[in-house]
Amino acid sequence: MLSSLFTEGATDIQLKELLICITASLILGMLVAFIHMYRNVYTKNFVITLAVLPVLVQSVIMLVNGNLGTGIAVLGAFSLIRFRSVAGGSREITSVFWSMGVGLATGMGYVSYIAVFSVIVAVFLLVIYRSNFTDQSSAERELKITISEDLDYPELFNDIFEEFAYSYRLDTVRTTTMGSLYELRYILLLKDQKQEKNLIDTIRIRNGNLPVVLGKVATNRDEL
């Protein structure tokens, strides 16, 4: 490893090895950013942060290496920072953790190790994203059905749900149009997403062609 990267202080860092570490951080940071952008929704600012984060973490690690006082000072400075943003999704947190890991490794001189590690992780993620490994035919859906007030709703659609869904439950009931109609909200775990149209058409026959809304359930399950 780069055992001669540090001696007594930051002024003794050898320029050649410093440039190697900085270059590796920038290149691997771009790799992390590229993998994060692949088949994903992202913002420009977040991608830039992923690309530049390794070199920033690397600089901090180089400053505190072997110096307990500097390490405590940096820890105190970071403790003043407050992040007032919504929790990121699991993929965003994974990318940030990966980017910080790159900075930690290059800052400690483990350039070859983190380069091999990052390439393996990048190839693995690309294969996973391009494969059908995470695809699923079943899906959780929110179903809103409007019915007239003269219909007895508790078990009105049970036979239909048993045909198209693994599980179902009635979540809420509310009146609409001055109380002349009911809106039923169900949570379904569909057997096959491709059968959504058939499900809607079957329900329309049962509810007299009144409005039917089928959509994704609002959830933050992928957050860490």
DSSP helical segment count: 7
Going by helix content, strand content and strand pairing, the class is alpha+beta
Major sheet details: 4 strands, antiparallel
- Binned, the helix content reads 40-55%
Rg estimate, integer Å: 27 Å
Low-pLDDT runs of 5+ residues are: 1-11
* Mean of residue pLDDT values: 82
Shape: elongated
Strands in their spatial order, largest beta sheet: 2-3-1-4
Would you kindly provide a written description of the structure presented here, covering whatever features stand out?
The chain has helices at 15-37, 44-64, 68-79, 90-107, 111-130, 158-164, 196-206, and strands at residues 139-148, 165-176, 181-190, 212-216. 50% of the residues lie in helices and 17% in strands. The two termini are 34 Å apart. By secondary structure, the chain is of the alpha+beta class. It has a 4-stranded antiparallel β-sheet, with helices on one face.
